[in-house]
User: What shape does this take?
Amino acid sequence: MSWITKQNILIVGLGLMGGSYAKGLKRIGFHLMAIDKSEESIQFALENKIIDEGSAEADPEIIGKADVIVFALYPHVFADWVKKNQKYFKPGIKITDVTGVKSNVVYEIQDILRDDVEFIAAHPMAGREVYGVQNSDERMFYNANYIVTPTEKNTKDAIEWCKDLGRLLGFKNISVLSPKEHDDMIGFVSQLTHVIAVALMDCSDNTHLVDYTGDSFRDLTRIANINDKMWSELFLMNKEPLLKQMDSFINEMKELRSMLDKDDKAGLREKMKLSTKRRALFNKK
Assistant: This one.
C-alpha cells in the first residue's frame, strides 16, 4: 500500500455510496473533496465533516487538486462528465468507480480518457435500502465483497492500487473479474434477486400483508424498496446476462411447479436438499 499518503481524494456523486467512501477514507486521514449537483448534499457533508471541500458544480480548482477520483454516478452520466472535465485532471492520476455494470461502462471510459490517466473499475458489493449522503455509513463495507474489473489496458500497479483501496475501506474479500465475468455474475447474484423481490411485491395488491407476514417474507423482499431510476438503468445496460438468468429461474420455477402438481414429494425434497447444501456455503463466509 505504498500509495497511501495524505492524498487529495475527490468523490464525484455524493449519495449513499459516495458518502460512505468519503467517510471511510476521511477517517483514515485523506483530504476529502466532493462534487455533487445537490447543494444540500454538499452542505450536509461539510457541516458533518464528511468532506473537507465540496462544490455543487464541476469546479476546475477542486478537480485539479485531486490525486484520486472515485466516481459514484449513474452510468449514463459518468461518460459525459469525464468528457467535459478530464481536461482538469492531474497528469498521472488514477480514477475508479462504484458502478453496478461494467461492460457497457469500462471500455467507453477507457477509450475517451487521456493517455496519462488510468481508469481501473471496481464494484463494492454493499448497499442499503436508503439513499443520499445523509444515510451514508462506511460500516456497510466491513466484511463485504469487493470486485476489481480490469481490462487489458490496465497496469498491474493500478490493479493492486484498486485492491488496496478495497482493503482500506474494510472489505473482507477482494476478487478480480473481467467486465464480462462481472456482468454475468452480477446478473445472477444481484440483479435477478432484485427482479424476484420486485415481482413478489407486485404480484399481490393486498395492502394488509404487512399485518400477517413473518420475517421470511420481510427478508426476501427487503430489496424491493428499490431506486427505480438507477436499477432500471442497470437492468437495461445488462440486458442479455439478466435475461439469461431470468430464463433459468423461470425454468426452475416450472420444474418445481410440475413436481408440486404431480405430488412428487421425493423430487421436492431433493430440490430442497440441494438448496440447503448450496446455501450452507454462504454460512461459512
Summary: The chain has a mean pLDDT of 94. The chain is about 50% helix and 15% strand. Residues 179-202 form the longest helix (24 residues).
